[in-house]
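Issue 218. Parser rejects a valid record. Input:
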Amino acid sequence: KNLGEVYTKLLRNLELDNKFSDAEYLKLAEKSIAVENRDLNEPFLTIIESLANRGLFAEAEKFVELGNREFEKRVVQDKKNGADLSQTENSERAQLLNSSGAVFLRQEKYAEAEKFFLKSIETSKKYNFAYKLLGEIYEETEKFDRAEDAYISQIASVPIDKANFDLLKNLYQKRNGDFENFESYLENVKKIAKTKRREIIVSEKIRE
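Output the parser choked on:
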């Protein structure tokens, strides 16, 4: 392991350790970002999630800004060196964007959260968690058509036999008052999801 990975592991282990104060944790976080890490999104991914779990949202937002700025710098530098983002790097970038958005979602700052999730999907459609989080935003703000589309896109991003239909089922009940005709609705959803999945696979192959 390199020093960056050691810091990341330490940050995770101390995340919910009550004996380790918030001030001490923030000092450790500041030290960790000065160390080179093989993962493009670390240690920022761990720091952002851990600070949010500690309830330190203002501090988490600062690291959101810093983490995404540093990632962009590395992308620009890679492009100058003639390299494009690989599929793995796109996935890492999407993961960082999702964790960034989640910080705002947990504070019910829906507009800010939405921006991060939409950018995450633009970066990598294979990383499907953003669709779920977008669906939650739209459902919470009663934009049910958008919520439905987001949940169907989430289903489409994985093989149909691994898809989870619970969120869509709950949304159906919220909109209709019961589950009458849900099975017929679900069959139609599966057809739409299969078409969307083909589109996702094709678009990701074009990126390669």
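Fixed in the parser; the record now loads. DSSP finds ten helices and no strands in the chain.
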